[in-house]
Amino acid sequence: MRLKSLLLCVPFALSLATADTKAEAVITHKMDNFPIAESVEINAGKDIIFLSGKVPTKKAADLPNAELASYGNTEEQTINVLEQIQAHLAQLGLSMEDVVKMQVFLVGGEETDGTMDFKGFMDGYTKFFDGKSSKLPARSAFQVAKLANPAWRVEIEVTAVRP
Questions:
Q1: What sign has the CA pseudo-torsion 155, 162, 137, 49?
Q2: Cβ–Cβ < 8 Å for 86, 160
Q3: Residue 109: beta bridge partners?
Q4: Stretch (H or E) spanning 3
Q5: Residue 90: how many other CB atoms lie within 10 Å
Q6: Is CATH 3.10.20.340 correct for 29-160?
Q7: SS3 helix, strand, coil % of the chain, rounded to 5?
Q8: SS3 155
Q9: Whether residue 18 has pLDDT greater than 70
């Protein structure tokens, strides 16, 4: 009977030991000299939230729908999209520090000879993720041929974790 009681206690004791070493919900492994994470670990039992891709909104409702000037350049569009993401996360009780993964889709337009404006994107991105925080997302950025609106240069989707 004693052996049976001991065997029942072992899994409980092991779970306590594991809980101490895994106390942090999200562990970020920063990339040297670049404001993204090389990898992000998420411990079991955490809520993972997937946000659909967000695209820029017009600077004013009365501006034309398919003109670049209505949405701004890549930097302005990046800031607009990240502000939308930040607002949506706030509605969920989360912040930009809870973002663990980001996928960025960039379009090269006539103004950049068909090449994505990565510098413009980074100028907007670093207003939200400057590399000084220990909480940075793992991130990918892609040039795509087109988005749904010919004036859009940026679409961003993110994954967040509730701490």
A1: negative
A2: no
A3: none
A4: helix 2-21
A5: 11
A6: no
A7: 35, 25, 40
A8: strand
A9: no
- Joined together, the tokens standing for residue 78 give 């990046």
Q: How far apart are CA 147 and CA 135, in angstroms?
A: 29
CA distance 138 to 47: 17
The one-letter code for the residue type at 112 is T
The interaxial angle of helices 74-91 and 118-125, nearest 10 deg, is 40
Query: CA distances (Å), 138 to each of 21, 28, 38, 102, 156, in order?
Result: 23, 9, 6, 6, 13
Query: CB of 102 within 8 A of CB of 158?
Result: yes
How far out from the chain centre does Cα 15 lie? 31
Residue found under tokens 């240069």: 153
For residues 107 and 38, give the distance between their C-alpha atoms in angstroms, rounded to a whole number: 24
Is residue 20 over pLDDT 80? no
User: Which single residue is written with the structure tokens 């701004």?
Assistant: 72
Per-residue pLDDT reduced to its tens digit, 52-95: 999 999 999 999 999 999 999 999 999 999 999 999 999 999 99
pLDDT digits 0-9 by tens, 44-53 = 889 999 999 9
- Provide the residue type at 72 as one letter: G
**Bridge pairing between strands 26-30 and 37-42:** antiparallel
